[in-house]
Amino acid sequence: MAAVKPEEISHPPMDQLQGLEYCIDSNPSWAETIALGFQHYILALGTAVMIPSFLVPVMGGSDDDKVRVVQTLLFVEGINTLLQTLFGTRLPTVVGGSYAFMVPVISIIRDPSFATIEDPHLRFLSTMRAVQGALIVASSIQIILGFSQIWAICSRFFSPLGMVPVIALVGFGLFDRGFLVVGTCVEIGIPMLILFIAFSQQVEHTSTDRDLTQHSCRTDRANLISSAPWIKIPYPLEWGAPTFDAGHAFGMMAAVLVSLVESTGAYKAASRLASATPPPAHVLSRGIGWQGIGILLNGLFGTLTGSTVSVENVGLLGSNRIGSRRVIQVSAGFMIFFSMLGKFGALFASIPFPMFAAVYCVLFGIVASVGLSFLQFTNMNSMRNLFICGVSLFLGLSIPEYFREYTIRAFHGPAHTNAGWFNDFLNTIFFSSPTVALIVAVFLDNTLDYKDSAKDRGMPWWAKFRTFKGDSRNEEFYTLPFNLNRFFPPS
Question: What InterPro entries does this protein's entry cite (predicted)?
């Protein structure tokens, strides 16, 4: 074997990933687009079913209530996904429910004013209306930060080095939704994991095979099919008028901030997996603003959770190597359509959770590796960079794990004072791995020798993507449709 020369070992940094079959503005045939869109819809069902299945019974809701919440969440997910792909970042991202909102929602459920209500259905409705009111108020945070371009200004402090742990932990931080859930039913979880790896990496053009595999092991332990109506169109305020409480709203604001951070990392990952340039600052901020509108819709319709970018669907872009925007828009159509046809939607939603978790093991890993790929634009022979990257990754995993373990043992978070809103705020923030990583990485990256380390941090590469006109490709990827740029010019 001939000796490898040093120049043959190096791999120059690349703005866009190679090997994708379709990028953001290229589209498969309509038949393949529909099949792939259905695949994204099936994947989005996991979170849409898991969150209500956990929360609704605790609130006193029945199986009928649970099905209505699942349908409503899917309906709003479809609307929010269309809004984001048309007017937000325009990246091929599914906007779904977020686990970040679990802490403040559970706090509202445990509020003594609701816990003492004896009638389960009345307790469910009262709690739902309180969650709706908190979401409506808290949504203003992202709406203001996004449309005022404040988040675009904040992004000036981000560098490729600082974004590595944030994007990586968007994937790695969800490890507890992977094999830990697969292990609850290894009989179907492990075969699904093996099949998914085989089909996604070894067999080309098998976009519908995974769905067929999932149908063969379907169960209805959640009573979704039997409880679902044949036709039901969700509508705003169907649970009644929202109620408002300052403490509930303040705790929910922390979840909104966590959603903002996690979505920022997911948008940057999606841009690479769609073979696009990193979203310019004003495009990123615009997307956050529309996500705030999405959380407002979550509150108006009553979905029990706010909106964030679906990490698993971002990972699927890399797994099937198809980053087409149209595919995601078709998946949004499936969400809206099947949320109104209750029995059919419940049929697909009855796929066992371990099967979703098996797929997550791969897809979350892909998103995490995209975050690590940003290291190519930095100097990892710098002790400064090694310190920042290592510490932020470790603390981003370790601190949230401490908060989770503490909560399991004590039945409350480490922040446990007489001020419930304060507890909810801190516990929510530090439950999120990407948020902890952002705090640590951005602080260290902008304080430790930052003036003399711009090149090591990757800023020369990053700078041209900060503005819309900094790279000619931005216009192709991020220009608004219907000639709306005339009215909303890029800043």
Answer: NCS2 (IPR006043)
